[in-house]
């Protein structure tokens, strides 16, 4: 009977902690809901004490997302644990995840504690957490650079005090697979009460070995892996969830282990996380990269036509990338369009359907063939659009070589009034953003901007991702259009709408009991 590996997703904590990956409250809830649909076992929703915003988002996820265990991280300190518990206590399945470092370098230079003090702090804080919550995970930060005998001693104390999971992090991504597997085996053999807890691992990708280390740990007996969608995370990131899950599925016989993730939701989850964080997935990324299932070389295509298994070890359908022979175009009706949405697994509210269909028709007028990727991009934009405090009414640009660009932008405000401004800038996009700033009347910093295309071809839709910073907080927006200036303007407005909505939602949540 294969073992079932617990998939612990930390996209909303370790992933979100990475520079440039922050998400707002609405986005975090949306990602958490998708993670529940994906079927992860545990969602680490955040680090409740880190900021009031983090606390609110952990609490709202704990209150609204059903299915997975909802965890909050906390240092091994009473005030952290109290805050974590306050944030997750309304979940049907709460978990406190507390940690302290156990490596000599961390104990001496960061904690300024002796090993004995670390043991006693572990004892006191796991006991404290356990008095609040029945499910307590204890992590020994920098475990891979800790003395294995000391690590086992700390884990034993944590288990004696009631820890239900003990986690072995490779915090700085220093370990290599055989060594990390040996460490897991040392923990299995060296902690007397190990049978009373689950062994977890948490690997970082500094040497590009996070997934390899996690899989080696599974072979050595780990029962939980901590990972993030698209491998987001501190520095080089964490182990990529989609890679671990597909390795377990594709090479089940090698691991003699399974997990409960619905792999057909992987592609959608990856796209959502990429959209809300504004962090693009590299084309050659395993499983979810744009090229992961593309077979360009003639010799490969020849083999694929003869028998797909020649070059395909997983099907695109298995990660939720269905292949439809029938293409949609301007003559396709609403029924065919709705069927295609359904076959792509895209759930669209009745209220959004008319808008998405209109956007599809408009696109079909400009492009001969509307691909599944186009449809998915349209639906993703529409279903996650926040309230349109501002909407683009029209814009006119004047741009060219050796002249400053000017842009006149007119926005419709919620309620219907129109506001127009003109600005000069370094290129048409800069000029347009400046004109919008004048309309909105806020000091907006553009912290990131990227332009890509949804599909190949000259008539492809441009996809713009914008990240703005307002009063030190970040907001993301996405825009789609066959005109890249319009896509950029739409993305900028979406980020501003997210900022206005977020402030409102957060104020409401802050005042909630
Ligand atoms: O990398 C790490 O050590 C962590 C722990 C807090 C689990 O993220
Ligand atoms: Zn980490």
Question: Could you outline the blueprint of secondary structure elements for this entry?
Answer:
Elements (H helix, E strand, L loop, with lengths): L2 E2 L1 E4 L1 H7 L7 H14 L3 E6 L4 H13 L4 E7 L2 H11 L5 E8 L2 H8 L3 H18 L3 E6 L6 H13 L4 E6 L6 H14 L7 E6 L6 H10 L4 E4 L13 H10 L1 H4 L1 E2 L7 H12 L20 H9 L27 H10 L6 H17 L5 H12 L6 E9 L6 E9 L4 E8 L2 H13 L4 E9 L8 E9 L2 E9 L2 H28 L2
Parallel strand pairs: 1-10, 2-3, 2-9, 3-4, 4-5, 5-6, 6-7, 7-8, 8-9
Antiparallel strand pairs: 11-12, 12-13, 14-15, 15-16
This protein binds 3-methyl-2-oxobutanoic acid and zinc ion.
List its traits.
single chain, alpha/beta, Double Stranded RNA Binding Domain, eight-stranded parallel β-barrel, 3 domains, binds zinc ion, 43% helix, TIM Barrel, 513 residues, 18 helices, three-stranded antiparallel β-sheet, binds 3-methyl-2-oxobutanoic acid
Description:
The protein is an alpha/beta fold and 513 residues long. It folds into three domains: 3-277, Aldolase class I (TIM Barrel, Alpha-Beta Barrel); 298-380, no CATH class; 390-510, Alpha-isopropylmalate synthase LeuA, regulatory domain (Double Stranded RNA Binding Domain, 2-Layer Sandwich), CATH 3.30.160. Helix content is 43%, strand content 20%. The chain is built from 18 helices and 16 strands. The protein has helices at 11-17, 25-38, 52-64, 78-88, 104-111, 115-132, 148-160, 177-190, 210-219, 241-250, 252-255, 266-277, 298-306, 334-343, 350-366, 372-383, 428-440, 484-511, and strands at residues 3-4, 6-9, 42-47, 69-75, 94-101, 136-141, 165-170, 198-203, 224-227, 257-258, 390-398, 405-413, 418-425, 445-453, 462-470, 473-481. The strands form four sheets. Strands 2-3-4-5-6-7-8-9 form an eight-stranded parallel beta barrel, surrounded by ten helices. A hairpin with a 6-residue loop joins strand 11 and strand 12 (405-413). Helix 2 (25-38) runs antiparallel to helix 12 and helix 17 runs parallel beside helix 18. The relative contact order is 0.09. The mean pLDDT is 91. Bound molecules: 3-methyl-2-oxobutanoic acid and zinc ion (ZN).
């Amino acid at each position: 009977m294969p073992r079932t590996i617990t998939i612990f997703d930390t996209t909303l904590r370790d992933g979100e902690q990475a520079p440039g990956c922050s998400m707002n409250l609405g986005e975090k809830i949306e990602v958490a809901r998708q993670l529940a649909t994906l079927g992860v076992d545990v969602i680490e929703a955040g680090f409740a004490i880190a900021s009031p915003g983090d606390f609110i988002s952990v609490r709202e996820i704990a209150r609204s997302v059903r299915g997975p265990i909802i965890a909050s991280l906390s240092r091994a300190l009473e005030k952290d644990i109290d805050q974590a518990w306050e944030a997750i206590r309304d979940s049907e399945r709460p978990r406190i995840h507390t940690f302290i470092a156990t490596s000599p370098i961390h104990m001496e230079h960061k904690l300024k504690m002796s090993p004995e003090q670390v043991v006693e702090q572990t004892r006191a804080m796991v006991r404290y957490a356990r008095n609040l919550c029945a499910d307590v995970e204890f992590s020994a930060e920098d475990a891979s650079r800790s003395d294995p005998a000391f690590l086992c001693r700390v884990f034993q104390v944590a288990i004696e005090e009631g820890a239900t999971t003990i986690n072995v992090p490779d915090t700085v991504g220093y370990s290599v697979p055989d060594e990390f597997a040996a460490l897991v085996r040392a923990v299995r053999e060296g902690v007397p009460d190990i049978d009373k807890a689950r062994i977890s691992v948490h690997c970082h990708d500094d040497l590009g070995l996070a997934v390899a280390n996690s899989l080696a740990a599974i072979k050595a007996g780990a029962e939980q892996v901590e990972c993030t969608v698209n491998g987001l995370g501190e520095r080089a990131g964490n182990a990529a969830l989609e890679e671990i899950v597909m390795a377990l599925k594709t090479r089940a016989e090698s691991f003699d282990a399974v997990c409960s993730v619905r792999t057909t939701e992987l592609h959608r989850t990856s796209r959502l996380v990429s959209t809300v964080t504004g962090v693009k997935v590299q084309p050659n990324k395993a499983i979810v990269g744009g090229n992961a299932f593309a077979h360009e070389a003639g010799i490969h295509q020849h083999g694929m036509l003869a028998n797909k298994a020649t070059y395909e070890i997983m099907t695109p359908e298995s990660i939720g990338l269905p292949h439809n022979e029938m293409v949609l175009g301007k003559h396709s009706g609403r029924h065919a369009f709705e069927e295609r949405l359904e076959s792509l697994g895209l759930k669209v509210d009745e209220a959004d359907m008319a808008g998405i269909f209109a956007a599809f028709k408009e696109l079909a007028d400009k492009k001969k063939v509307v691909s599944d990727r186009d449809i998915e991009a349209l639906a993703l934009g529409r279903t996650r659009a926040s309230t349109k405090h501002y909407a683009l009414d029209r814009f006119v640009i004047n741009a060219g070589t050796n002249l400053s660009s000017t842009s006149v932008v007119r926005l419709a405000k919620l309620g219907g009034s129109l506001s127009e401004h003109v600005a000069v800038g370094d290129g048409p996009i800069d000029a347009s953003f400046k004109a919008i700033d004048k309309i909105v009347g806020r000091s907006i910093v553009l912290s990131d901007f990227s332009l890509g295309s949804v599909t190949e071809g000259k008539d492809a839709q441009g996809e713009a991702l914008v990240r703005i910073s307002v009063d030190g907080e970040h907001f993301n927006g996405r825009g789609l259009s066959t005109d890249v200036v319009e896509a950029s303007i739409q993305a900028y407005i979406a980020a501003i709408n997210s900022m206005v909505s977020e402030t409102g939602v957060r104020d409401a949540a802050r005042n909630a009991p």
